[in-house]
Amino acid sequence: MSTESERPTTGDAESGRHRHAAQEGAGVHPLIDLSRDPHPGVPDHAKPDED
Fold first, then answer.
1. Could you tell me where the Basic and acidic residues compositional bias lies (predicted)?
2. Average confidence (pLDDT) over 6-26
3. What is the spatial distance between Cα 46 and Cα 51, in angstroms, rounded to a whole number?
């Protein structure tokens, strides 16, 4: 099991960049194309409303 003290520090937290953030100038990921969303603005992964 790892702890905070065992994780390497890179200084990214101070600069506001996160490990999972895309690099500056990186293009849009081809699997995340919001222009192809068949139902824009509708969360299709959400639990149905209980009426």
1. 34-51
2. 62
3. 15
Coil vs helix vs strand at 16: coil
Residue 50: what pLDDT?
A: 79
Integer Cα distance of 7 and 33 in angstroms: 33
The structure tokens 């702890």 sit at: 3
**Which residues are CB-contacts of 18 (< 8 A; sequence separation ≥ 6)?**
12
This prediction has a pTM of 0.24
Determine phi and psi for 36, rounding to 5 degrees.
Answer: -100, 10
| Helix residue ranges per DSSP H, 12-51 | 12-15
